[in-house]
Design a protein that fits this description.
- By secondary structure, this protein is an alpha/beta fold.
- The chain has 29 helices and 28 strands.
- The strands form six sheets. Strands 1, 2, 5, 6, 7, 8, 9, 10, 13 and 14 form a ten-stranded mixed beta sheet that branches.
- A hairpin with a 5-residue loop joins strand 23 and strand 24.
- Keywords: Allosteric enzyme, Carbohydrate metabolism, Glycosyltransferase, Pyridoxal phosphate, Transferase.
């Protein structure tokens, strides 16, 4: 019989065990081994059955066991120690509190997904895991972050396979009362709400759930409340589900409702109000509109409010392809704003102008969330050095007249939260060398260039550790494979072969990620005979563990999964290659440490960062990857291998795949497997062990989320907070008026004449040219602009590369024609073909970069022909 109603019955903990409830509700347990060990000791069977989730554990432990523990003095001493440790962690000063200067009082961090723990399944892939690691690292460093997201009642989806290997999606319903969450409540005990106005007089209400991520509160908005109609209740049903209007409502709730939730949280808890708002990808971009609306209610005009909001906003893009960005029909967005919907006091046309693709190559009728995010943020970044460059190219249309390398998008390379992803066995080996506290600090703070203590680890210990982790992975794979085949309809009698799947002494390769086409899940199958030879080699075999989910609407991705599964089902190789369905955090925490090689073969440069390889590296796994994302930035032969790419503009995609697959097989056959299996004088693979050591000691400190968050604080949050403080109402009005005046006058700005002291087309290194230019500033004054000389080497088409800029100084007042003279020296500091030009940019003390206003004046062709010189 089926229940007509579901309730969550919570146990009443004996008084001595009450701290267990606080420990279970703070997600620090997900990365704190002592807390997890304590919960495991409550009841080992219940702990395993609960999926290592303390909240579920406490709901299933028999009362008799709880009574027994309440009398167990040894357990109570451990409980007190762990509870005291959490209290010290929550209240003591950490890295952030020891910094000098005025750092932000608080930062609000918005993301559509957060991967904190498998017990809170609110993530689909890398973006969510990155967001979760960002929160955890901020907590460890003491950064006063407030996380903001949505609570999806079905999460992303659970994946299984049909008998013929086709991906099946399942959407189990999540009950928030059974998750490590608490409702945010008003002082009178009622649930706190936020509300959005919808077209036709309807309303979208959402309550606010609080997940405590160490020191960081994470606010999750949930529209499944009785006050909503059925359609509105389903707004937060699934992550990345539904059609355009459904997604738009999710993103309005995240951005606009999220700001309102932050204000409510700060009011109820007296938490410091954020000075900086960080938008993790464009999904939360509407947060800027809500903040503009707040300032308009306080008396600012829209333009002034826009400047004030931009000053304190950071935007991070993770998307290297336009197709990965949410874009909405202009009419759909227009219908949801204005007098009859949300933000009624803001002109709908102003809202639309922030997101419309009004630039060369754009779709003028589409509202682009990333474009809005960039227009609403004074500071923006990509997530690796290469991705920063890709992003500058992709969004260059927003800054016409500027070279791509001057587009104001910087980069902060992602990192991963080591306490979450480092296997306990790896941590213990490190702690044995330097002590537990120093090992914890090394993994969380991210301040070292290298971990020298790793160099002292004996070869035997390193090799035994690697085999232990491989052996654990083998057991995990067999358990998961058996469960998967039962779901596919196999009987127990058919599955005896699974006992021989994988071998703890065979070189193990891991490949796990989402399955869009550009990540090329099936590149390894390009030459199946050659792959079979590698898998079945009599002396140097390899084995491969593959996992990944295709988006439910991506049939092409599902076909790739099916192709891989069918190959792995072949009785000749199924003991050497496996596909594990339902890739998630719990699987990943076993997979990364247990592999010897982490494989990544995307189409370059379409990988934004690729943090899975970082997690593998922290466990001594070597990377085998295309030079994309973070690997392009930090690859050294000490750490692994680079797969050569065939990414010339004229390369046929099929030929490109063939070339790169062949290069992958060559590396495995000729360099990787020989190194793994060859033995030195000690009987150990000493050259492989040395690569493991170097990966840990030199790459380990780079890939930490602690390093990443410190960079965000120092390079983005602190300058944004300073700009926010400088942008008081009067300054915001003055800047908005100045920008309007400069834009109106800019058509009258020109470079009219350029002359130089050079006598010919050659010059000596180290000499200096005198440069004199005349410019027309129209209705502007010299204080409104900067006149620059731009110089550097030139390519075959006379384009300046590796440019250097030097400001020129005005000389006297305007001439009779109203033109101003500027002069300055131009140093010839490099040999070879050399060129220069002159340009005019708007200049104001509150601009973050010369390109911010998107205006530039350069010499006309006539002026260039009269004055341009190339030094050869």
């Amino acid at each position: 019989m089926k229940a007509i109603r579901r309730l969550t019955v919570r146990p009443v903990l004996p008084d001595p065990l009450r701290p267990l409830s606080d420990l279970a509700r703070n997600l620090r347990w997900s990365w704190h081994p002592e807390t997890r060990d304590l919960f495991q000791s409550v009841d080992r069977e219940c702990w395993a059955a609960s999926g290592c989730d303390p909240v579920r554990l406490l709901g299933t432990v028999p009362p008799a066991r709880l009574a027994e523990l309440a009398e167990d003095r040894r357990f109570l001493r451990r409980l007190t120690a762990v509870a005291d440790d959490l209290d010290h962690y929550m209240t003591g000063d950490r890295w952030y509190q020891a910094q000098s200067g005025r750092l932000p009082a608080a930062v609000a961090y918005f993301s559509p997904e957060f991967g904190i723990t498998a017990a809170l399944p609110q993530y689909s892939g890398g973006l969510g895991i990155l967001a979760g690691d960002h929160l955890k690292a901020a907590s460890d460093l003491g950064v006063p972050l407030i996380g903001v997201g949505l609570l999806y009642r079905h999460g992303y989806f659970r994946q299984s396979l049909s008998r013929d290997g086709w991906q099946q999606e399942h959407y189990p319903v999540l009950d928030p009362h059974e998750l490590p969450l608490a409702l945010l409540r008003e002082a009178d005990g009622t649930a706190a709400h936020v509300a959005l106005a919808l077209p036709g007089g309807r309303e979208l209400r959402a309550r606010i759930w609080l997940a405590q991520v160490g020191r960081v509160p994470l606010l999750l908005l949930d529209s499944d409340v009785e006050e909503n109609d059925l359609g509105e209740r389903g707004v937060t049903d699934r992550l990345y589900g539904g059609g355009s209007e459904h997604r738009l409502l999710q993103e309005m709730l995240l951005g606009i409702g999220g700001v309102r939730a932050v204000r409510t949280y700060c009011r109820l808890t007296e938490h410091a109000a954020p000075e900086v708002f960080h938008t993790n990808e464009g999904h939360a971009g509407f947060l800027g509109l809500e903040r503009i609306s707040e300032l308009c209610d306080e008396g600012l005009e829209f333009g002034s409010a826009l400047e004030a909001v931009r000053a304190g906003t950071v935007f991070t893009t993770h998307t290297p392809v336009p197709a990965g960005i949410d874009r909405f029909d202009r009419e759909l967005v227009a219908r949801h704003f204005g007098p009859d919907a949300e933000l009624p006091r803001i002109d709908v046309e102003r809202v639309l102008r922030l997101g419309m693709e009004t630039y060369p190559g754009g779709e003028p009728n589409l509202f682009n969330m990333a474009v809005m995010g960039l227009r609403l943020a004074q500071r923006a970044n990509g997530v690796s050095l290469l991705h920063g460059g890709v992003s500058r190219e992709m969004f260059a249309g927003l800054w016409p007249g500027f070279d791509a390398d001057e587009v104001p998008i910087t980069s902060v390379t992602n990192g991963v939260h080591a306490p979450t992803w480092v296997a306990p066995e790896v941590f213990r080996l490190g702690a044995r060398q330097i002590g537990v506290q120093r090992a914890e600090d090394a993994l969380t703070l991210g301040g070292s260039d290298r971990w020298d203590s790793v160099a002292d680890l004996p070869d035997q210990d390193v090799w035994e550790l690697r085999r232990t982790l491989r052996e654990q992975l083998v057991e995990e794979v067999r358990d998961r494979l058996r469960a998967s085949w039962r779901q596919r309809g196999a009987g127990t009698a058919e599955l005896g072969w699974i006992d021989d799947v994988l071998d703890p002494d065979v070189l193990t390769i891991g490949f796990a990620r989402r399955v869009p086409s550009y990540k090329r899940l099936t590149l390894m199958l390009r030459d199946r005979d050659r792959l079979m030879d590698l898998l079945l080699h009599p002396e140097r075999p390899i084995q491969i563990v593959v996992a990944g989910k295709a988006h439910p609407a991506d049939d092409g991705g599902k076909r790739l999964v099916q192709e891989l599964v069918r190959f792995a089902d072949d009785p000749r190789v199924r003991h050497r290659i496996v596909f594990l369905p339902d890739y998630g955090m719990a699987m990943a925490q076993k997979l990364y440490p247990g592999c010897d090689i982490w494989l990544n073969n995307p189409l370059r440069p379409l990988e934004a960062c690729g943090t899975s390889g970082m997690k593998a590296a922290l466990n001594g796994c070597l990377n085998l990857s295309v030079l994309d994302g973070w690997w392009d930035e930090w690859f050294q032969p000490d750490f692994g291998w680079a797969i050569p790419t065939a990414d010339g503009a004229g390369t046929d995609p099929d030929r490109r795949d063939a070339i790169e697959a062949s290069a992958l097989y060559d590396l495995l056959e000729q360099r990787i497997t020989p190194r793994f299996y060859e033995r030195g004088a000690s009987g150990l693979p000493d050259r492989w062990i040395e690569m493991v050591r170097r990966t840990l000691s030199l790459l380990g400190p780079k890939v930490l989320a602690g390093r990443m968050v410190r960079e965000y604080v120092e390079r983005l949050y602190a300058p944004a907070a300073e700009a926010h403080r400088a942008m008081d109402p009067d300054s915001a009005r003055a800047l908005a008026e100045w920008k309007a005046r400069v834009r109106a006058a800019w058509p009258g700005v020109s470079v009219d004449h350029v002359e130089t002291s050079a006598a010919g087309a050659t010059a000596e290194l180290g000499s200096t040219l005198g440069l004199r230019v005349r410019v027309n500033l129209g209705d502007l004054a010299p204080d409104d602009v900067e006149v620059q000389a731009v110089s550097g080497r030139v390519d075959s088409e006379d384009r300046i590369t590796d440019a250097a800029t030097v400001p020129l100084k005005p000389v006297g007042g305007p001439d009779l024609d109203g033109r101003w003279a500027y002069e300055g020296p131009l140093a010839l500091d490099r040999t070879g073909p050399f060129g220069y030009t002159v340009r005019i940019l708007p200049a104001h003390r509150l601009l973050a970069s010369g390109a911010e206003a998107g205006l530039v004046a350069v010499p006309s062709d006539d002026v260039l022909q009269a004055a341009g010189l190339l030094m050869r």
